[in-house]
């Protein structure tokens, strides 16, 4: 059976061929019949054509035309010789308008029987027309059933492929969901490490220093408590941004240079280390400002926790097409190959997402140099 998208085109071309090969020859040949049957021989093919046009225009719920066609073929066989040609030409119509497999077998079989009966009543007997009709019916039925079986197999295969495609889409959607969830967890972990964890670490260090100096150096302890309060407020603001209660624009608002300078001043105040800064004026979007701020905060946190340094240098340089952030210290250094932890890896991933990169240079006893590079529109 034709596919739904091809069915109208197939029906149109088959109707044209049926008229040209089946009905037209019968109508033309009727002029050679005897006067008593000439009108009937011409009228039956014309009536079949009109019936098909009506059926095509008003199909209805019942496929009545194949039954009318079977009766018409029998009438042509009774009126004149040559009904086998009309039967062969009409075979596709029985199948194209069928709703089940058995229906066209019944209607085409009825047409073949009607042709044989009509030919027998006319006195033709079991001759050429009858043999051609029987062979045509058998061959058409076998061919149609074979095609139907092939199409059914193709439909089942298409259905299986559709189910497999649906399963693949479902699996892909689940994989994307899991990947998105993992990426979101990684992002949250990185943001928490870069903000809250660093803030809490600073609070712990300052609280220990304040507790030990509250009696011997009350002024220093008071300053440290003030720093603890400020860091706690900053952490609260960061937490609100992380949970979506505050807009991200509140982080690193203003110029890059101003944001980094405030961060360095607080670091120097909290740690007492000497900080030397050379900061170019850099214009960047919110994402660039946050990335530079996080890299600076992570570098300073590593200096505070691990370096044992006395001096920190920070250089922000505006270059053609990119910006460079360099953080150096004169601390104890470390082996870069053996370094483990979330901080440096998080910085690399953050910069890589923005098309930048991170270079870490350090050795035991020689301090550390961290160079972050980010693309920047001119």
Structure description:
This protein is an alpha+beta fold. The protein is 68% helix and 10% strand. It has ten helices and five strands. Strands 1-2-3-5-4 form a five-stranded mixed beta sheet, with helices on one face. It is rod-shaped and about 135 Å long.
Question: How widely separated are the two ends?
Answer: 65 Å
**Number of continuous helical runs:** 10
Taking the sheet with the most strands, its summary is:
5 strands, mixed
Order of helices and strands: HHHHHHHHEHEEHEE
Overall pLDDT = 79
Q: What percentage of amino acids are in beta strands?
A: 5-15%
What global shape is seen? rod-shaped
Q: Which regions contain 5 or more consecutive residues with pLDDT less than 50?
A: 1-5
Coarse structural class: alpha+beta
Question: Fraction of residues in helices?
Answer: 55-70%
How much is the radius of gyration in Å?
45 Å
Strand order, main sheet: write it out: 1-2-3-5-4
Overall strand count:
5
Provide tags for this entry.
378 residues
Summed up, what is this model?
68% of the residues lie in helices and 10% in strands. It is α+β, with helices and mostly antiparallel strands. The protein has a five-stranded mixed beta sheet, with helices on one face.
Give a topology summary.
Layout: H1 7-29, H2 35-57, H3 65-79, H4 83-96, H5 102-121, H6 128-213, H7 218-242, H8 256-271, E1 274-279, H9 286-307, E2 311-319, E3 322-329, H10 342-353, E4 357-362, E5 368-375
Parallel strand pairs: 1-2
Antiparallel strand pairs: 2-3, 3-5, 4-5
Helix pairs in contact: 1-2, 1-4, 2-3, 3-4, 3-5, 4-5, 4-6, 5-6, 6-7, 6-9, 8-9, 9-10
